[in-house]
Amino acid sequence: MSRAAILRDSPGDPQLENVSYSLPQGSEVLIRTAAAGICASDIQVCDGRIPTPLPVILGHEATGVIEAVGPDVGRLCPGDRVLVCQSSFCGHCEYCLKGLVSLCRSPGLRTRADGTPRVTAGGGALHTGSGIGAFGEHMLVHERSVLQLPDSVSLEAATMLGCAVTTGMGAVLRTARVPAGATVAVVGAGGIGLSCVQGARIAGASRIIAVDRRADRLTTAASLGATDVLHVMDDDPVETVKELTGGGVEFSFEAVGISSTVEQAFRMLRMGGTCTVIGIVPKTTPIRLKASALLAERRIQGSANGSNKFHLDVPRYLALHEQGRLKLDELIGATVALDALKEAFGAAREGRHTRTIVSFDGP
To answer: Which residue from 52, 262, 316, 336 has the least number of CB within 10 angstroms?
Structure first.
């Protein structure tokens, strides 16, 4: 028997319950969870902004230690320290063959192809967020969602590589392909936005402007490479960005998930600029842009989990971390135990911390 935080109603908050995990089948891996990050999308699901099947164990950014593997698993073994990422891939669908593995939605990865549940509570089947369900003491996932970790990185710090870093860094380096010397604005300095800042610094951007409502987050952004910070409350930061850059930035990144900030990020662009939207705006919310702005070859695009290829990207990010060029611990604002998850969700709603880590060994 194991424990997990189950969301049964949305809007609502997850509650701790006893759950049972199936034995690993085929290419599945059973992992004892070590740490899991609270992502803004987890809060949006709880608040009813992102529809999802219920009941569900949320959480998709995690690390742990393998306890058991299915008979078809060849590269992973019990005892391995691992990272779990939501960008599982099949390798043979249209998107995988095009190299767009973060868009793979093939059956048999996030759920079992035969429809049987991986985890149950009281005899009833449970869904798992992104096929992971990290807010539980165990995770039962497909092996292609899993990557071995070196002993040189702590499991808590490595958790950031499961979503925040791969999404933010990937948006800069893979989706937008920011070149050296470019000008960049990042709207929203949470875990993903701060990873955008680091990605822009590593890419060699000449100007990196971080925009947020919290002064403490902007202080962190400056320490991670932002050349300018804009502390905004109700003011529109667009004109300030244009003044700082002589007409706007070449690349902007929206990491909040609100229509108004998407519109601001687009308006910050100079002619020929590209706005990359990372934040999850509710599906029915319209985004209003001036059509005339598009005639000057401004572009707006989305980024799915940073267009990542995490089996390639994460080892490279770990190398940057070991060199001191990519900061992970600095992205963590608080650490809590699983029993304090409800309170941690409340703090996340208020934006009190850049990223909160649930540690299964206690804070």
So the answer is: 316
